[in-house]
Amino acid sequence: FANIDDHQFSYFILDKLRNKAVVLKDYHILMGSGKSAEFFQTVFASDDILRNYNPSKKVLSIQTNACALTPDPLFSRENMRDGLSLVSRLKHSDIVYSDFLPIANTHLTYSIPLEFNSAISTYFSGASLVNSLSSFIEMHLMNNKHRQYPAVMVNVRKHSMDVVVCKGNELLFCNSFEHQTGEDFIYYLLYVMEQLQLNPDVHQVIVFGEIERNSSAWLIAQKYIRYLMLGDKPENLEYSYGFDQLMPSQYHLLFSQILCV
Questions:
Q1: Most distant CA atoms of the chain, gap in Å
Q2: 113-150, pLDDT tens digit by residue?
Q3: Which SS3 state, helix, strand or coil, does residue 40 take?
Q4: Model pTM?
């Protein structure tokens, strides 16, 4: 299972017999160099596991800013490119994909550059391709299906954040925002809660990803959100020794891909 965004490429290996994560590696990416054949060529040349390991299944999730959600009754595969172009600027050469989210009965449509698509075909031949938001949404719709009140889930990446709000297994909101400072982080979070009429003193906010308790984003959020908490690793996986050294909220998008098995 692998995940890539503009700043990081990471993967883990699942032992299916034990349902256990046994290997985890990641690579930090220089801005603009990640989604290219040259990047993957460099990584595969230096990584014996990636170069020699032959798994029974490969899943690659990607983060992309060009994406849109469409309820299943309104979705048309023939017109999904036109639908995505209404909310995102697409290049003529971009390749458009769509993930179906059964629990939400909706489709997440997204695009990737042609060069990146070619690199995937070369270095991840036979891999299932998904958008990282798809597994994030589905994981939390499943985890919150018995919850009676709305909950806010935030996944933090280096300079961006994904916000998902659900009530039971109903998806109320999903969007991504760029942030550079702690002030940006709390601004977008409070803006979403205000639009959905959620009370920061009442509703729970669970944060995953690249955030620490001493970060500016966390410290300022504590001042405004009463029930702020760090998320945990998915409970439907076992983890080898060494994984306990990670913060429980780290690599959440990566581990959420277990839904794709």
A1: 52
A2: 898 899 888 889 889 999 999 989 998 898 888 888 89
A3: helix
A4: 0.89
